[in-house]
From TrEMBL:
Taxonomic source organism: Microbacterium bandirmense
Protein name: Metalloregulator ArsR/SmtB family transcription factor
Residues of the HTH arsR-type domain: 1-91
Entries under InterPro entries matching the protein: ArsR-like_HTH, HTH_ArsR_DNA-bd_dom, HTH_MetalResp_TranReg, WH-like_DNA-bd_sf, WH_DNA-bd_sf
UniProt xrefs under Gene3D superfamilies: Winged helix-like DNA-binding domain superfamily/Winged helix DNA-binding domain
Length: 112
């Protein structure tokens, strides 16, 4: 595996970091909002956020004196998807079938 892939899986290895990612799926959140959900110290959450950011799984932006975090969905999907495609090639076919499904009905879209 590449160093990039290793950093993603290292970031996903801890339950607190996985929970942070799940919480960010609903949208951007301030560092304080994220920290308030956990019973660990602020510096511990900061380290988790730093590791997630270093792996490219979240992004941050400053808004005055606040740091806002967002999920980097594409990076997460590509990293995990590439790994699955390598160890489980049938995932490539399943992904293509899902991509072709109609959004409302679930029917497979007709390709011209």
């Amino acid at each position: 595996m590449t160093d990039e892939t290793n950093s993603v899986f290292e970031a996903l290895a801890h339950p607190t970091r996985r929970q942070i990612l799940q919480d960010l799926k609903d949208g951007e959140q301030a560092a304080g909002e994220i920290a308030a959900r956990f019973s660990v110290s602020g510096p511990t959450i900061s380290r988790h956020l730093g590791l997630l950011r270093g792996a490219g799984l979240i992004t941050e932006r400053r808004d005055a004196n606040r740091i806002l975090y967002s999920l980097a969905e594409e990076r997460l999907a590509l990293s995990v998807g590439d790994f699955l495609s390598t160890v489980c090639p049938e995932q490539i076919v399943l992904r293509e079938v899902r991509r072709r499904r109609g959004p409302a009905t679930g029917d497979v879209a007709v390709q011209p």
